[in-house]
Each structure stands twice: as structure tokens, then as C-alpha cells.
Amino acid sequence: MLALYFDGQPAIQEVPRPVPGDGEVLVRVHLAGVCRTDLEVLKGYHGFKGIMGHEFVGEVAGPEDSAWLGQRVVGEINIGCGACDLCRRGLAGHCRQRRVLGLKDHDGAFAQYLTLPAANLHAVPREVLEVLAIFTEPLAAALRVMEVAPVSPSTRVLVMGDGPLGLQVSWVMALSGADVHLAGHHPEHLALAAPRGVATFLSTDLPPGDYDIVVEASGSPSGLELALTRVRPRGTVVMKSTYVGRYPLDPAALVVPEVSLVGCRCGPFPGALRLLRDGRVDPRPLIERTFPLSRGLEALTYAQRPGGLKVLIDCREAD
Amino acid sequence: MLALYFDGQPAIQEVPRPVPGDGEVLVRVHLAGVCRTDLEVLKGYHGFKGIMGHEFVGEVAGPEDSAWLGQRVVGEINIGCGACDLCRRGLAGHCRQRRVLGLKDHDGAFAQYLTLPAANLHAVPREVLEVLAIFTEPLAAALRVMEVAPVSPSTRVLVMGDGPLGLQVSWVMALSGADVHLAGHHPEHLALAAPRGVATFLSTDLPPGDYDIVVEASGSPSGLELALTRVRPRGTVVMKSTYVGRYPLDPAALVVPEVSLVGCRCGPFPGALRLLRDGRVDPRPLIERTFPLSRGLEALTYAQRPGGLKVLIDCREAD
User: Fewer Cβ within 10 Å of end Cβ, chain A: N or C?
Assistant: First the structure.
């Protein structure tokens, strides 16, 4: 099969079709999404080698006796060992021996086929178009913010960063009726949030504020600095994005105002699928271009443009 | 009256007895406690000038028509403006214009008399000896940890730092039946926790662990570094102590394991008074020496010994 393989350099190449192991299924990939983390892989993140990609929608193609056969699915990306204390406590996503689809010790989604444990799968409702389903994983990651920092219509929220992640976070938080502000550098991105009840600001023009929750989704060290000046005492700063380098944290900036700094990562697929099914979130305006898998290298290059949004890879066209 | 006044240097001197303003009471101070923060004041913390000290127990001595007259009291140390959005939301302790007893814009407790708003007072139950009541403020600060990081008998807790704060935090957390470990550098301090159901370790001998909650009460940058290696995924690191300097935080150390870093400061007096009244916590073993106010400078010097515990100042003896 065709795959986008990374081994220090990305390359489109023919590789053997993977064989599902015990408890695993074979998925024929329809669409895959390029995420910022994939671009980090290109820079050596995790020292990953293998088939890249972790956002996908596809159809179960094996084994023949699988109850999932023929089902359209999306899949959670963390594969726990199933035996350690964390897995046994329901924290398989944090298993220290975990493999991660397209990111750590498990081949990914930029290919005609992938394998995943059946336990990782979620059925895609018939009503959900594939160009919507492909957003299940990133939308779930956005929903995770609301699990660690619950909101209500009384909550004042600032989301920093107008990339796909920041936009999706602002959308889902605004659904709740919370007073959501989004700050970013790209007027054309901010324009995607304004019609959804989000007040938008260029980061350079952000007025003084005193937010209950600040979500750092800008991926820049200055974002965290600004977040800590904008959160109210006893408020929460949600750290959603990582970056290389260290942030010089003043302990008094947390202790004196009793601020919480909360890391968060992957989120709940069922809620994301329901929002997509019910049309409460429509991320399609985030899609900039779709490339066939055979042109996957172009897709990666295109996705690296500063201020880019979502790039998709159609893995069927290579059949 | 006699007072320990700081104006770049601490000095025992005669100053005018303070006059309570609107809503304030005059308190005759019986005992005061020296806190680590007082030692920071000596180094220039907050640029404070005035009468030092914020831990006290005393008796209300005026005004004549106060409902509190003659009542034995302890007092909360933050004085909000009463009018800003934070005060109106019940966060007077975080008012940006707040004054703080003996720490910011309000004379403190190392004196024969102090003034405080009556709203800051808590009556000391008859059964509570003054050598116990003097611990209300620091014990309340310890209880605050459990408000930001609730525990149950299933919770595994590591407290780092065996000073008075770390010891009191370990005691109150162990009351709940949680599995509490305490790490520090002083065997004689650790010995004060072991009989109270706390497992103790020299920091250098701390075995590997995977704690739900790690409380950083060591006041050293290496404490936070160690805390982040010992907290489990989705666990909480409570930052209780500040220090000068910045900690180089790796954002991935919070985001990937979804760890929370929670600052916390002052706590609830009523719970602290109840624990003292019921004998569930007895901090008297923390008392090393009591000095009369006239020898307050010696008290400060003594309190600065490395590895020191609690030093008290008896403000009645100067009468």
C-alpha cells in the first residue's frame, strides 16, 4: 500500500499492508488530517519513525470476523498496555508504555490502511459527512478544555491563539453561553469565530481583562506570559499547546493569586461526534486544501505555511 | 506602646497606640508568631515598612461600644477595599487594593496593640489555649491545600518540606485517612509527623512514587522539579511556598500528562479553630522558643536559624 513514511525525512513509499494483531482491526483510511503535532514530528518530536498521521476517518476492512466490519469509524490515538496501574485506573491514555497512532511506536493514518485496537474505535453516525468526521479528534481535544475548566453562562473566557485548535475551543465554549473572547494574529481566522458568538480581538489590541479562564492555544511562550496577566485571582489557565523551550515561571504568580495552571491534551470522542452530528459545530470552514495521498509531501509543505488552517489528505485516491 | 518596627531595619521602639477606624477594633495582642514571610520582609519583600507580624491571638480592647469587647480573638490578615469586583464576589482576600496585616500597608502584630476590621475577627473558643490559638492562621493555610486538592482515604499524597507549613499540611491531610508521605531534610522534624500516621522520608531517600497530589512546601526550586516527576498523570501539584527567582517550566511536563499546578495561600479560620478545639491537631511541638516583645529582635534572629520551627513573641510581657 501507499504511505507517507518518516525516517528522518518524510517520503511517499510502498509499504506492506499492516496485519491487525489480537483485538485489533484493519481500517481502510478515507480521509486524514494534518495536525500541528505532525509538523513537530518532522522536526524530530518523540524521535518517531514510521507512518505519520493520527487524525482519520475510515472503514473497518478486517479481520473478516470483526463485529466492526464495514463500519465507518474514527479512532482514539492512545494505545495503553492494558496491564499497568494507570490502564487499570481508566487512564490508558496516560499509560507510560503507551503507543500513539502516528506519533509513538505505532504506524499512523497517512496511508491506505492502518491498524488500531477495536477498543479505540467510535462509530461515525450515518448523518456525519467525512469532511466533518475528520474533525472528531481535534474537536474532542477542544472539548477536553471544558472537562478541566467547566464553563457556564457566567464564565468569562479568553482563548489565546486563532489556529484550528483555538478556533474550535472558542466555538465549543461559546456553545455553553459563556462570554468567550478570542485573541489572535489573523483577522481572516478571527472572522470564523465572530459569527458564532465569540468576541474577537487582534492580540495586539486585546483590552485589559480579568478572565475566569484563559486557554493558552497559541503555542508561544509569550502566550503563557500574557495568560497569567489576564486571569483573575483563583482563575484557571488551561495549557493546551506545547512548544520547545522552557517558560520562566514566577512561583508567586501562581501562589499569591491562587491561580491554577492546568495541562490538557486528548479529549472525549462521543461528545465531539454528537456535536458534529447535530450540526452544533461545523469545522468545514477550517479546511484549506485536500491533497491525495500520493501528493502527501505537498500536503505537509502546504500545512507549514505560517497562519495555515487545516490540510486534509485523501487516502482513497491512491487506490 | 512597644512595637517591632521595620523601616529597612527592624527595631524595637515606642510608637503611638493605633486608633481603630470605622468598622475596626483595637486588639491587645497576647501572643504573636514569627512566619517565614516575616523573614522575607526583612529581605525587602513587598517593600513593607511598619510594624511587622501577622500571626496573633489577643483580646479586643476597644472601641468601648464594640460587640467584640473583651472577646479573645484571632484575625484574618487580608483587608479588602470592600468595593471592587473581587471584594463583591467574595474574593476580598484577593482584592488588588488589599492591605495585609504586617505585610502590606497595615501595621502588624509584633506590638502591644493592633487594629483590624471586626469582619476579620474569629472568636477563640474558651477551650483553646493561646499557645494553640496562635497556630490558627498557619493551620488555616494548611487547610487551604485540601480545598484546592481534596483528599479521601484513596488519595496518595506527597508533602515536600518538613518546616512548620509542610508538617501541618501533612498532619491535616493524614486526618482524612489519605496515604500521606512527607519528605524533608530534618530527621527531628520528620519525627513530629510519623506518630500522626504520616510516612516520612529523608528527601535524599525518597523512593519512586506516583502520587495523586504533591504539595510543594519546601520553598526551593528543586522542590517543584521533583514534584513534577512524582505526580501521576492527571494529578495535582499544589504550590504552597514561593521563593525568589523563576522556575524553568517545560510546558510539555504539564500538557502531556495533564497535570495541574495549583497555587494556594491563605485558608479558612473556622476549620482550623475547630481542629484545635477538638484536639485533632496539636501544633505545640512546633514551638521552639518564646521571646518577650522587648526581645523581638532576638526572636527574629533565632527564627532565621536553618531548619528552625516556630518562634513566638509574647506581647504582654512588655506591659
Answer: C
Residue B318 has pLDDT above 60, yes or no: no
Residues 6+ apart with CB under 8 A from A145: A169, A172, A173, A215, A238, A240, A264, A267
Q: Retrieve residue B213's grid coordinates.
A: 497530589
- Beta-strand ranges (E) seen in chain A are 2-6, 10-14, 24-34, 50-51, 55-62, 72-75, 78-79, 99-101, 105-106, 113-117, 121-123, 156-160, 179-184, 199-202, 211-216, 231-239, 247-249, 260-263, 287-292, 310-314
Residues of A in contact with B252 (CB under 8 A): 242
Q: Can you read off the three cell numbers belonging to residue A16?
A: 506492506
pLDDT of residue B317: 67
C-alpha–C-alpha distance, residues A124 and A74, integer Å: 7
Closest chain B residue by Cα to residue A147: B258
Q: Residue B296 and residue B301: Cα distance in Å, rounded?
A: 9
**Cell representation of residue A185:** 494574529
- What values do phi and psi take at A137, rounded to 5? -65, -50
Max alpha carbon distance in chain A (Å)? 60
- The interface pTM score, or ipTM, of the predicted complex is 0.91
Closest CA to A198 of A176, A160, A226, A170: A170
pLDDT tops 70 at residue B319: no
* Contact between chains at A248 and B250 (C-beta distance less than 8 A): no
Alpha-carbon gap, residue B145 to A267, rounded angstroms: 28
Which element (helix H / strand E) includes B10? strand B10-14
Q: Which residue has the cell 518517531?
A: A48
Distance from CA of A210 to the nearest CA of B (A): 10
Residue of chain A whose alpha carbon sits nearest to that of B246? A250
Q: Does A43 touch chain B (CB under 8 A)?
A: no
Cβ of B234 under 8 Å from any chain A Cβ? yes
**B54 with B36: CB under 8 angstroms?**
no
Please count the helices (runs of H) and the strands (runs of E) in chain B. 10, 20
Cell numbers given for A266? 486528548
- In this complex, is the C-beta atom of B208 within 8 Å of any C-beta atom belonging to chain A? no
- Contact: B265, A255; criterion CB under 8 Å: yes
CB contact under 8 A, B242 and A234: no
Q: Whole-angstrom Cα distance, residue A113 to residue A59?
A: 9
CA pair distance B98, B119, nearest whole angstrom: 14
CA dihedral B286, B290, B293, B297 (to 10 degrees): -80
Residue recorded with cell 496491564:
A83
Report pLDDT digits (tens) over B41-70.
998 877 899 999 999 999 999 999 999 999
**Binning pLDDT at 50, 70 and 90, where does residue A317 land?**
low
What is the Cα–Cα distance from B52 to B49, expressed in whole angstroms?
Answer: 8
> What does the alpha-carbon distance between residue B237 and residue B57 come to, in Å, rounded to a whole number?
32
